[in-house]
Amino acid sequence: MKGDTSLFAAVDLGSNAFRMMIGQQVRSDQQWLIHEVKTMREPVRLAEGFEGRSLDALALKRGWQALERFGKRLRGFEACRVRAVATSAVREADNAAEFLAGAERRLGFQIDVISGHEEAHLVYAGIAHTMPSARSNRLVVDIGGGSTELIIGQGDRPLLTESLAIGSGVFGTRYFAGGHVSVQAFQQAERAACLPFEKIAYRYRTMGWQQAIGSSGTARMLARIIKANRLNGNGQAGITYAGLLRLSIHLMDAGHVNRLKLAGIQSHRLSTLPGGLAVMLAAFKVLGIERMIPSEPGLRVGLLHGLMREEA
Q1: Pairwise CA distance, residues 182 & 170, whole Å
Q2: Tens-digit pLDDT profile for residues 163-182
Q3: Residues 6+ positions from 58 with CB-CB distance below 8 Å
Q4: Which of 56, 139, 172, 272 is deepest in the core (most CB within 10 A)?
Q5: Displacement of CA 251 from its chain's centroid (Å)
């Protein structure tokens, strides 16, 4: 793989996990598609490592070790074929410069700290590339560890974008420390998540959409659990408000993420489940979403698409 000039790489330094996707451009049915060659995921949990407004020593170490492993896979890649971006946790950290200095040295490539709005545009670019072009409006919801991006777009054009400072990792640490889930804590988390959505809801509901898409790991996790346990109750695919409510009842009854006895749950995602569920419930409630379908990763595909377009 090293030195293969047909390959491109996208590195996403998220607030929950660091991910890398290596892909190549392939021709299919008279259009260019991105073929996934290799993916790597490291559960770094940066959002859980804040002391005040700075990342603590353990979070820095976890991040640097992950990027060192990514860097070994990227040896031989030209700089023009790799793009690495950092999102919410690094944006918010007072010691971001310290983290980035060590991160770039270990990865071997520059890391761009992107704004929430640029993140939203990249997420939508990835969705537009992987899902059939639609003439009608579609809403994309991307719940990350430290922020949530909302985009209404048509075809390959984003029309309205917003980035909210709420996420599964941040809410997990704030309301569900140690994996404990009480009824009171869950209700507080959901109410807190509703507030930022309420500030932007009018513009989004006025523009409207015909399809809602969840592009994050949170959406894929929730859809998988709901499907495996038939929580939608009516045979509907994807994520519904009823399915989310039933999952929240199971979670509150369990009282702790480790006592949740449901199929389809991956152990490495347990810590982010309560926070991600609270944020998703708030999005459905405030925006009036009826059903959402999960998608493949948006941000990393958006990064790869941008790299390939620049070289074309």
Answers
A1: 17
A2: 999 999 889 889 999 999 99
A3: 49
A4: 272
A5: 22
- Residue 263 CA to residue 248 CA, distance in Å, equals 15
Query: Are the CB atoms for 110 and 141 separated by under 8 Å?
Result: no
In tens, the pLDDT along 229-270 reads: 999 987 788 999 999 999 999 999 999 999 999 999 888 788
DSSP the chain: -TT-TTEEEEEEE-SS-EEEEEEEEEEETTEEEEEEEEEEEE---GGGGEETTEE-HHHHHHHHHHHHHHHHHTTT--GGGEEEEE-HHHHH-TTHHHHHHHHHHHHSS-EEE--HHHHHHHHHHHHHHHS---SSEEEEEEE-SS-EEEEEEETTEEEEEEEES--HHHHHHHHSGGGB--HHHHHHHHHHHHHHHHHHHHHHHHH--SEEEE-SHHHHHHHHHHHHTTTTSSS--SEEHHHHHHHHHHHHHH-BGGG---TT--GGGGGGHHHHHHHHHHHHHHHT--EEEE-S-SHHHHHHHHHHHHH-
pTM score, whole prediction: 0.90
Contacting residues for 7 by C-beta, under 8 A, at least 6 apart: 1, 22, 23, 24, 37, 77, 81
What dihedral angle (degrees, nearest 10) is formed by the CA atoms of 238, 158, 143, 107? Answer: 120
Structural domains of the chain sorted by starting position, each given as residue range(s) with its CATH number in brackets: 7-116 (3.30.420.40), 132-294 (3.30.420.150)
- What's at 105, amino acid-wise? R
Phi, psi (rounded to 5 degrees) for 180: -75, 135
Cβ–Cβ under 8 Å, residues 66 and 40: no
